[in-house]
Structure formats: structure tokens, C-alpha cells
Amino acid sequence: MGHFKRNLITTALPYANGPVHIGHLAGVYVPADIYVRYLRAKGEEVAFIGGSDEHGVPITIKAQKEGVTPQDIVDRYHNLIKKSFEEFGISFDIYSRTSSKTHHELSSAFFKKLYEEGKFIEKTSLQFYDEKAGQFLADRYIIGKCPICGNERAYGDQCEACGTSLNATDLINPVSAITGNTPELKETKHWYLPLDQYEDWLKKWILEDHKEWKSNVYGQCKSWLDNGLQARAVTRDLDWGVPVPVEGAEGKVLYVWFDAPIGYISATKDLTPDWEKYWKDKDTRMIHFIGKDNIVFHCIIFPAMLKAEGSYILPDNVPANEFLNLEGDKISTSRNWAVWLHEYLRDFEGKQDVLRYVLTANAPETKDNDFTWKDFQTRNNSELVAIYGNFINRALVLTHKYFEGVVPERGELTDYDREVMAEIPQIIEKVEKNLDNFHFREALKECMGLARLGNKYLADTEPWKLIKTDESRVKTILNICIQIAADLSVLSEPFMPFSAAKLRGFLNIAPVAWESMGADVVPAGHRIKEAGLLFDKIEDEEIQKQIDKLLATKKANELASVKVTPAKENISFEDFQKMDIRVGKIVAAEKVAKTKKLLKLTIDTGIDTRTVVSGIAEYYTPEEIIGRQVSILVNLEPKNLKGIESQGMILMAANADGALSFVSPDKEIKPGSEIR
């Protein structure tokens, strides 16, 4: 910490067009919360800032698709995200939003100051305009043929079929996604932040003055700076967002990337009238927690904006994380390949800390990492339950059993006791050192080292054997165990706040200051409460449920992307009339011996009762189809299948994955009725 008086901790503003998933949590919110809780435990002054990012084109597109207003969309997701964060224990001092009045006023004033001081450059360019809709079109609102791969539905910024980045003007036959009209090119004026003018300053500020930044962050900044910076538009033609506060800028708003980081400032302003001390006082240490896709905004663009404005402090560190994958595949909101926080909280009630623990233990700190449900289960059962939970349970249960829940006096110490107690301050110091350097994974490992120490101490000293012969030795052992338990309630609180609170409840103690750890926190004679379980085992079936959910998603995605078979050649009406298709009823059904796919069906066709052999056994059992109405082609020449004469063919619809289902009338019809 050094010379700073207070801390301003910001977290990337989640985009309010969908819920939050484990990738967001592992990358940003869990590490930020651990760090903030650690600072608070040490008695430091902290403002922990979060909020929803509510402007931009994806929100207007989603609103249009659903036939609601953009405000409806952001309200829905802002409330869902805010509630999920609260339940998950992300301890924001404020969770705000960029559609707020304070935010609109502040972003507007920020832009105006830069505008009046001539910090922007004005440029006129040609952009697509939709005459019928009366508006300029954002790239995502222009669809056309990709010049690279020929995909007919490429967007104006990217073709999702071949992945090429495009300009809207590259598209062949572009049309407006709003009206379907062909848009025309029309002149439009925008304001740009000339980042190139800040290049030398940024090089010194980052590459020379911040060599201590994480290697993944420093490396990404360096490659941006080495490639040279370009001016970036700070306004765009759109009606959803903060209006550009300049004469003649009707129908324009601040570009979402420009107004979003100002959201940190407006949230702080909503939190306290004293907000300027956090943003303008050199004694404040500002830290941005973000994911890797946000590094350029927080290390290059936002600092350039703050520098241009002139009265704000700059971030001291930007400990960005890489990405978390899910079951070996990239998390994707559009493909629903994710574990959503609000669903997790419902499926694993009361298990917030298990997810916090696993995401920290697997944190993608300098490289991408993978979340799997099996690993989640293993870490819960073999670490949280078997080590941490087991130690606490045994220490407390034995204290109740032998001493009626009263912490016993500590007697004479053995060398082993001294050795164990000497290790506690070393563990605490390692946790601190790692947290100070944003190494959350290592810090958690060291913290669990204290639970391992307690667990091993109990296993080595075996008080349950000694109680018959040496009660005073057992008193000393359990006294030491209770002190370790109390230390754990402090040391693990940043990582697992719910379990730490539960543990304090068992120990019957108030929260303990960070610096009191390692001393005798719980005096002899203190009465503890009954111990419950801190963690419980997660069974295979709970995990299987989650894996099945993902497999169902995968299957749905595969089906959605299957192309429909092209139409066959035309036939004459006479050809069609030659087919005699009737409604029939299945009166009996059985499996054909020694085959996997075949059923032998007896069908009442209204003309007669006949036998048909059909390859539907993988999709239907004989019992469930008796009495079903079917469509049957009755004038097909008979065929011998597995020694059975099959007379006719049943019409089946085949799904993209090959699954078959009956083509049947939707109400009861007399067998023999013609289908035409």
C-alpha cells in the first residue's frame, strides 16, 4: 500500500443485455471482492464500485427483436445482475447503472469540457443511412453478402460465417436490418479522440512507470503501443445513450465505450457527496479489475480521456485476468454455453462459497483456464469437506464432547505444539504477500494451508486416544485447535465470506481484526456453540444434472446450425396422384428379433389389416405406439425384411439429428381416410 490514504476499486461494468456467468465471475468480480474484503479486514478505507453498462447497439437490437424498449431490456438485466451479485456476496459499496440521471449529466459534462478545450477532432465521413427509418445505420444494422466467403447474411462489422472483420461498405448488396431497404451513403459528422497525440505519454506512463503490472496486461499494452494508435470516434448516430451536448448533434449519442468508464465516476458520485477525493486526490489508489477484452480501454483509452480532462487521477494497477473456458469450450452467451450465476444460486442453494473457491483455485490469472463440473465436485468433496470442514467439525465436536463446549486452558507446550504455532504467522504472511500482488490463486492455496495444518495437527496428536490417560494434554491440543479455527474465520473470509460467518457463529465470536490473527483470539473459558457442517458433499447426480444441461445445449446448438436439405426436382401432379396415402391405426407392435432398429407393426388401414416392418425401434417402444394413428403409403409393392413380408410404408419426419417422429392427423380420423 505504501503512501496511499484510500482505495478506489472498480470492476468492469457488465453489459445489461444478458445475465452474468462464471467467466465474468472468475475474471473480474471474485478477485475484486477478495481484494476489497482483505483491505477492509485490514482497516483500510475502500470504495468498491460496480454498475451495469446500459448503452450501445446490442441492447437496441435485442429490444427490437423482442418488441420492447431498450429501457425494458436494461431494467430486466440490471435487476437480475444486481440481485445475483448481492446473493453471491460481491460486497459493492454501490452497484449503479449508466442509464441514471447522474451518469447522463456527468458524461455530458465530461464530453463538453473536452469539446470546449479543443481536445477532439471533427471528421465528416460517408455512412449508410436508411431513408425509410430516418436514421443512420450502425454496422450491426447492415446486412449483406460477404465479399470473402459469399455468406448472404454478413453484418456490417463482421461475417460470422468466415470470421472476417469488415467495413459496412465492403458488403455486396447491403440492406437495412430495420426496414429491408437498400441504404444510401450520406455524410455525417463525428468527434474523435486523437489517441496518437497521447502515444509518447502513454509509452512512458505504462512501459517505464508500470513495469510491475501483470505480464499479460503489460504485454498487450506494449503491442498496442508498438503498432501505433489511431484517433477513435467518441460519438455515433443512434438514439439510445447519452445525447451529444453540442449544437447540431441531434440524433447522436456518446459512443458506449466513451461513456461506460465514466460510469465508475458517476457511480462514486451517487455513493458519496465526497466523491472527488476518490477521483482527484493523489492520495487515492485506483485499481481496475477487468477481463482481458477490456485491457485496451482501461490502460490506454480511459487514461487518455482522464489525462485530456486533466483533473483526475490515473489507475495504479489494472490486474486483468484472461478467459475461463467451460468444459474445454469457449464460453459463449449467444450459444448459451455458460454457467449462469442466477441459475447456479438456484441449483446450489447456500453454496456460494463453493463456486467462489473453485473459481479462485482455477483463476485464469495469466493464461486461459478451464472450468469443469467434475473438478468443481472434486474440490468441494476432497478439499472443502475433507480438509477445512473436517478439521472444524472435529475440533468443535471434541470440545463439546470432552469439555461441554467450553474452551479449555492451555497447559505446557510440546516442541510440536510450538512448531505448529510458529507456522501460523508464516502462513498469514504468505497470504498477505500474494494478495498484495493480486496472486489470488496462490493466496487461496496458502489460506487452505492453515486448514491443512489444523487437520494434520489433530490427526498427529490423536486427542480421542489421549483423553483416557492425559486430559490436560487434550486441553492444550483443543485450545490450539480452537485458535487455528478462529484464525481461519479471518483468513478465509475474503475468499469464502459465508463460511467464515458460519464458522464465527459456531465459535460464538464477533468478527476478528486481521492483525489479531495468530494471537489467542478465543480465551479459555469461552463457550462455543454446537457445530454444524461448514460444507457438505456434492453427489454425482447433482453434477450429472449440470453436465446433462450442457449436453442439451450443445445438441440444441448443433441442430440450430444444420442446413436444410435442398428441394428435390419437380414432379408432375400425375406422379403425385399415383401415391395412395391413407390414415391407419397401429393395432399391434413387437420388436423384430436380432435387430436394433426394426419393429413389426400390425396396421388397420381401413381397407384391410396388414403387416409393416418399420425402422423406428430406437425412437418408440412397442407399448407406447399401440392405438396411434399414422400415415401409410398403401400401394407400395411388398418387400421381404428379415423374413417378414412388409406391405406398405409409414411416413415419418426426420429431425436434423436423425430422430424420427410420426406424421399423424391432429384429431381422430377414420382408418382408410385418404391423405391428399
Automatic annotation (TrEMBL):
Cofactor binding note: Binds 1 zinc ion per subunit.
Reactions this protein catalyses: tRNA(Met) + L-methionine + ATP = L-methionyl-tRNA(Met) + AMP + diphosphate
Protein name according to UniProt: Methionine--tRNA ligase
Location of this chain's protein in the cell: Cytoplasm
Organism: Odoribacter laneus YIT 12061
Recorded GO CC terms: cytosol
Matches recorded under CDD domains: Anticodon_Ia_Met, MetRS_core, tRNA_bind_EcMetRS_like
Primary residence: cytoplasm
Cofactor: Zn(2+)
The entry's keywords: Aminoacyl-tRNA synthetase, ATP-binding, Cytoplasm, Ligase, Metal-binding, Nucleotide-binding, Protein biosynthesis, RNA-binding, tRNA-binding, Zinc
Domain called TRNA-binding: residue spans: 575-676
NCBIfam families, sorted: metG (TIGR00398), metG_C_term (TIGR00399), PRK00133.1 (NF001100)
